[in-house]
Structure to design on (228 residues):
């Protein structure tokens, strides 16, 4: 079992650009959550997807959007990038929405210049 | 809304010494509580969790934590530190909301282990 896989591992973008990050959940998991972890901070919840719909959303602007595919994989899209969007973006998957057994990927390090 | 406070952004111990990482939470309803570990350039790994069963929870790598409702605490301990324990540790609290449990994380505590 490959666990949760995220791609790419590192990414450099320019202010104003758009970015798409990808996540494949652990086998058997159908719920995917995304988190933003700024340097020196704990992860902050962005949103959760279940049955291809956004179920919960944290305090993030509409520039942050996502998608879940029928195979449970997920994408995080960020439009109009700001310098403050530079962070480690973590994907976590679980077999239910309780997140009591959430598994995290290694993250995508996004740098906005 | 729930919140987590981790006391001490850095904790330094000698190898073989007791590890104590402090976590206090606030929640208006009975919470789930978690401790995660993060090694450099890695994602988070679940160490242990409290989900309203036994108040003393044992996790991986010799770590354990005790849920104390009266003190709203969930401190993480390990009797004897190992060099490989050096990492960032995050406490998290989650409560039910709209059919989901969404964790709120603390700011983290960096554990430094000296030889």
């Amino acid at each position: 079992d490959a666990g949760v896989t995220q791609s790419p591992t590192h990414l450099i973008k320019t202010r104003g650009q758009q970015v798409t990050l990808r996540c494949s959940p652990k086998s058997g998991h159908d719920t995917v959550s995304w988190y933003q972890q700024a340097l020196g901070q704990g992860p902050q919840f962005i949103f959760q997807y279940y049955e291809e719909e956004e179920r919960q959303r944290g305090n993030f602007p509409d520039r942050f959007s996502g998608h879940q595919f029928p195979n449970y994989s997920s994408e995080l899209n960020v439009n109009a990038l700001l310098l403050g969007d530079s962070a480690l973006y973590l994907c976590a998957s679980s077999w239910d929405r309780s997140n009591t057994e959430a598994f995290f990927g290694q993250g995508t390090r996004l740098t906005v210049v | 809304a729930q919140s987590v406070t981790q006391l001490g952004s850095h904790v330094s111990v000698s190898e073989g010494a007791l590890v104590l990482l402090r976590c206090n939470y606030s929640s208006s309803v009975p919470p789930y509580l978690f401790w995660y570990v993060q090694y450099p350039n890695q994602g988070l790994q679940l160490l242990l969790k409290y989900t309203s069963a036994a108040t003393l929870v044992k996790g991986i790598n010799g770590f354990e934590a005790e849920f104390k409702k009266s003190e709203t605490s969930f401190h993480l301990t390990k009797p004897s530190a190992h060099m490989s324990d050096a990492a960032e540790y995050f406490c998290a609290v989650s409560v039910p909301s709209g059919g989901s449990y969404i964790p709120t994380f603390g700011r983290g505590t960096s554990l430094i282990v000296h030889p």
Q: What stands out?
A: The interface with chain B takes residues 4, 33, 40-45, 48, 50, 55-56, 58, 90, 92, 97-107, 109 of chain A (CB under 8 Å). The longest strand of chain A covers residues 87-94. Chain A is about 0% helix and 50% strand.
